[in-house]
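Why do we care about 3D structure at all? Because function follows from shape, and shape follows, mostly, from sequence. That is the central idea of this module. The next example makes it concrete: a single protein chain, its amino acid sequence, and then its structure expressed as tokens.
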Amino acid sequence: MIWVYVFLGIGLAGLVTAISYAVWLAHKASDLYSEVRMLGRRAEEAGELLARIELPAERTTTLDGAS
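And the structure:
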């Protein structure tokens, strides 16, 4: 009869472990989602900064440095 309690204990420990892992995984997924959103914001900011860059007019130079 003791084996019933042993298996119940093992099952309960497994259940607690599975729930703990699920909570940990949810936190990690939330952190990852937050980082992806921040990366998207930074990409938008970089795009805005790159859009502001004005390239100078093209000029030709010779090998001796004279324009």
